[in-house]
Amino acid sequence: MKVGILTFHRAENFGASLQVYALQQYLKSLHLNAIILDYRCMFMEHHYDIFNPYILFSRWNFFKTIPIYMNRLSMNKSMRQKHNMFQNFRQEHLKMSGSFKHIKYDLGYDAYIVGSDQIWRPMLTNGVNDIYFLNFPMAKHARCISYAASAESTSFPELRKHKKEISIFLNQFNAISVREKDLQIELSSYTQNPIKICVDPTFLLSKLSYEKLAIHHKLNNYILVYHLFETHEGSVLADKIAQKEGLRIVEIHSAIRKYHSNNGHIHIDVFGPQEMLGWIIDAKIIITTSFHGLVLSLILQKNVWIVDEGQNNRLSNLLKMVHLERRMISDSSGYHEDDFIDYLKVNDLLQQQINYSKNFLKVALNINGK
Hints:
Blueprint: E1 2-6, H1 14-29, E2 33-39, H2 42-45, H3 62-74, H4 76-93, E3 96-100, E4 111-114, E5 143-149, H5 156-161, H6 163-170, E6 175-178, H7 181-187, E7 195-197, H8 207-213, E8 222-227, H9 232-245, E9 248-253, E10 266-268, H10 273-282, E11 285-288, H11 291-299, E12 304-307, H12 313-321, E13 328-329, H13 343-364
């Protein structure tokens, strides 16, 4: 069976890269010919362009964005290095189709899987993008599946504006699954098709798979602070722990910019998916604002803390699933050094959801007997 995967595979974000890698690897383990459709969503790709003038007009105050844009230009070399690392990962580890910007004819696949990641979040796709709802020419026998599709609850008002057309799209699916409970509830009024909840694709691979993929570093005995969104609280918490435990602090930033720090922290903003895995594996403690930072920390059984005020539904949903809500804190006062994660219990809870999700894919693809 030839299966096409549609997702954010070109986002220069380690979670986006690993989730599509994991989904493709799992489908390959089922003896399927899984190919990532190299759809070029230019609106998303422009976000990573070094000379993207849209940044100048992305905020109300034009003059405040000028320094941001000039700083971005000054980081030209670092941005190119990071871009090349992600490009190399795609070339070496992902099996992709030829590139295209539109789908005007049947691509010849037996099934199409859209997801995971926030492919149904309009602000990331310049409105409701019907390609991510599998609305394009295909054979009558082709199966349409969403796997762990996601959208923040802040997207719901925009989705509701397009409810009629989205309903038409969803009613044509053979199987629908999303990643978060609130998205399941929201979309339940859009379609008569049942909507399931499945885990992020990164959970479909084992701890050993990621350990083999990782690129390690020479540094050890450190706390890793991974900022998907910059938080002062995460750095303060790291300082608090480091002073007590005698550890160094490595701060990894998703955005490339100049970091002026006299606190002795190591700041890193040039990395690829494999390098990020290495930093996570070798860390003693992880503090993060990132969903996939949490996901990989759980898979790799790390001592992880989430700095957030509980407003990120992706993080809170996952923590609730594994009964670790207490690991989400708003500042250093919520940290307790004697609070350890019982990974025997966590792995048992995760495995139940992983088995359910794998079975969802098998049934959706009509290969339940394998």
